[in-house]
Write a structure and sequence with these properties.
Order of helices and strands: EHEHEEHHHHHHHHH
Oligomer: single chain
Number of helices: 11
Structural class: alpha+beta
Helix content: 40-55%
Strand order of the largest sheet: 2-1-3-4
Largest sheet: 4 strands, mixed
Length: 251
């Protein structure tokens, strides 16, 4: 069994799908689309315009929560969700929160930051599978960043709001770790194996470590340490871009 995984460069939801496939032992080929334009390209073959999208044994799966459930049906072991009703519900709720609350906030921060300074955009293309030269992708990044920021309603106003909310969001990840809903050790197998919520949340927190403005504060938290254990390497770096007064509360 092999899969084709479609994403965009440095996409934390796409990395979440990679973690799920790895957990199941499913090999895959990854292809990346140009951010922003991916919404239109994907609609030719999938119902919506979001990544990640997977083709697996003729089935087309789209969105991390759809993918996690489908993979547990197709390859039941090792499971992405625990057996017990109560523990399963806790993982499902954490996965949903990671998808609908945490992930969009970090995505907006990323586009707002790149809108201010895209000098390190090449670092996000290190592992990209775009099918075009990196130099060309860098040279055309300006319109892509502007378009993607507009699509995600990302700018200075949203950045200030999301930075103010970030401590509360990270507190929630720390709580999920303390409650055992997320795996404390982040191992790929065994008693501390990653579940669907780990796969959803860890890449998003790991993306925050790409921000020079935020790295130190996030690394000091259980959430940051968990993300680093799950994903020791993550492409991309965003230089200091936000005013000090915006990020003061994060630390």
């Amino acid at each position: 069994m092999r899969a084709v995984l479609i994403g965009v460069p440095a996409s934390h939801p796409t990395v979440a799908a990679e973690l799920m496939l790895a957990r199941k032992g499913i090999g895959f080929e990854r292809y990346d689309l140009v951010p922003g334009l991916h919404r239109f390209v994907l609609r030719r073959a999938f119902p919506g315009g979001t990544v990640p999208a997977i083709v697996l044994d003729g089935q087309r799966l789209q969105g991390t929560r759809t993918i996690s459930r489908a993979l547990d049906v197709l390859v039941p072991e090792p499971a992405l969700f625990p057996d017990g009703p109560k523990s399963r519900a806790a993982v499902e709720q954490a996965e949903l929160w990671g998808d609908l609350v945490l992930q969009p906030a970090v995505r907006r921060l990323a586009w707002a930051a790149l809108k201010r300074d895209r000098s390190t955009i090449r670092s996000f293309l290190e592992d990209a599978k775009l099918g075009l030269p990196t130099g060309l992708a860098v040279a055309t990044a300006g319109p892509v960043v502007a378009w993607s920021a507009w699509l995600n309603r990302a700018g200075d106003k949203s950045a200030r709001r999301d930075l103010a909310a970030l401590p509360r969001l990270l507190d929630r990840v720390d709580e999920l770790l303390a409650e055992g809903v997320l795996s404390g050790d982040g191992r790929p197998s065994g008693d501390g194996a990653l579940n669907a919520a780990d796969c959803q949340i860890a890449p998003t927190v790991r993306f925050l470590l790409a921000f020079d403005d935020l790295r130190e504060a996030v690394e000091a938290r259980p959430a940051g340490r968990h993300a680093l254990r799950v994903l020791p390497r993550f492409a991309g770096r965003i230089p200091p871009v936000f005013p000090t007064e915006w990020i003061r509360s994060v630390g």
